Input
Amino acid sequence: MQITLNEKQRRLPSASQAVRYRLCLQPQVALLAHADRIRNVYCGRQVFIRGLLEFSNYCMRNCLYCGLRRGNTKLIRYRLPPDQIVSMVRAIYNSGLRTVVLQSGDDHVYSRACLCDIISRIKTLCPGMAVTLSVGERPLQDYRAFREYGADRYLLRHEARNERLYRSLHPGQSLAARMTILEYLKKIGFQVGVGNIVGLPGQKPKHLIEDILFMKEFCPDMIGIGPFIPQRHTPLADFSSPALSTVLRYLATVCIETGVTLMPATTALATLAGPGGYRAGLNAGCNVIMVNFTPYPVRKHYRIYDNKIAIGLAEVLRLVRALGRIPSGARGDSFRKPKQPNRLCASCRA
Ligand code: 5AD
Output
């Protein structure tokens, strides 16, 4: 997708003008350098390394872009048993990382009690480990229980802030329900991550601007953004990915507009551009990398999109150091809490 504006849009005076200018018009070198400076002010040279465990690829949803969608009958499905999840998390802990991201499709076979048990075992066996959950939409009581059992953070990308676009991509789901969950997660004290895909079929620059204005307003602790990458057993198989420069412009604009946010250079970005994608992301406002610890026999089945790249901890450490940045396995909690509110953000100022 090329970001260009027509004459009418160029002349539109609106609250979103600054965002529009950055995303669509500002020369790229200046835009990326600005984001890099902002990142450096809030975060310095640190890059937080997280351990990622994709513990189930079952999903009850049918999102058009995602290879885990329930309609994909070609995918070999797996679930890791709780004992294996806990022992993999111990391995992540022993490698020195103090954040684990537990991710799955929307798989309610892992009951509330089961996930709570996993969280509390991790908290006992791995003192000081931050637990980030990324297990999709569930009843609100589940989130409260996860929080009470010690989960620290929750990633639930909003995926698309435009109602019509959201509806067209997520059959049977509603944007309003997603928003209710995100507000609830924040209210009960999770550090919350949102985000979206760049370059989805049907997505226009105005949609991306809506996404940015939403993120600015919502004031998330974390933001996950990656390019659309087609998966061949989905309805969007024949569409192509956006240009790397489009994604980098978007990342930089988000960084500038939202200020203090933990933002990974994502695997999708590196899948689009090779390991150079990580470097490019880290130079466009990103300050986090997730290293995949999913066991090898099942890893290839977590096929959200095709050709997903895998990079080990040692290689990530080398890559980060080569950029003159400092890899950190520390918890890397939100910059917003407790003492660094985002002055740009309406809800932090309140
Ligand atoms: N391309 C890029 N990102 C995708 N995701 C799902 N499918 C794709 C795809 N084809 C993203 C979604 C989801 C996250 C785990 O992966 O945004 O929230």
Remarks:
- The CA atoms of residues 4 and 183 lie 33 Å apart.
- The chain has a mean pLDDT of 94.
